[in-house]
Amino acid sequence: MGYVAVRISDEKVFKGQCLPQSVQAAKMVAVIVALENMPRDEAVAIFTDSDWVLRAAIDWIPLLGEEGYEIREGKPISYAEKLIYLWGLAQQRT
């Protein structure tokens, strides 16, 4: 599964393959790559068609710190490590 992120200011395209191969992982990696490649002091807007990525970034990540990696019925959260990394990148921007 591939991902792509575009930095509008210079039209630079970042793309690659995502493992494990899933739509959710690829879309999350696209957000991560976008955050990794933008200067921290520059405003960034993320556009995605993934409700899953939005819910993960806004609703689920804060719960990881409170409840750990197991949220629902003792099952581990999918892509918890990627979510925590994404949260760290987002926090560097605030």
Q: What do you see in this structure?
A:
It is a single chain. The chain is α+β, with helices and mostly antiparallel strands and 94 residues long. It has one domain (2-92): Ribonuclease H-like superfamily/Ribonuclease H (Nucleotidyltransferase, domain 5), CATH 3.30.420.10. Helices cover 47% and strands 18% of the residues. It has 3 helices and 4 strands. The strands form 2 sheets. Strands 1-2 form a two-stranded antiparallel sheet. Strands 3-4 form a two-stranded antiparallel sheet. Strand 3 and strand 4 form a beta hairpin. It is globular and about 45 Å long. The relative contact order is 0.16. Residues 1-94 form the RNase H type-1 domain. This is RNase H type-1 domain-containing protein. InterPro entries: RNaseH-like_sf, RNaseH_domain, RNaseH_sf. It comes from Chelydra serpentina (Snapping turtle). Pfam families: RNase_H.
Features:
94 residues, alpha+beta, 3 helices, Nucleotidyltransferase, domain 5, two-stranded antiparallel ribbon, 4 strands, globular
Short description:
InterPro entries: RNaseH-like_sf (IPR012337), RNaseH_domain (IPR002156), RNaseH_sf (IPR036397). This protein is an alpha+beta fold and 94 residues long. The chain contains three helices and four strands.
Sequence-ordered SSE layout with sheet pairings:
Layout lengths: L1 E6 L4 E6 L5 H14 L14 H17 L2 E3 L2 E2 L3 H13 L2
Antiparallel strand pairs: 1-2, 3-4
Helix pairs in contact: 1-3, 2-3
Protein name: RNase H type-1 domain-containing protein
Organism: Chelydra serpentina
GO molecular function: nucleic acid binding; RNA-DNA hybrid ribonuclease activity
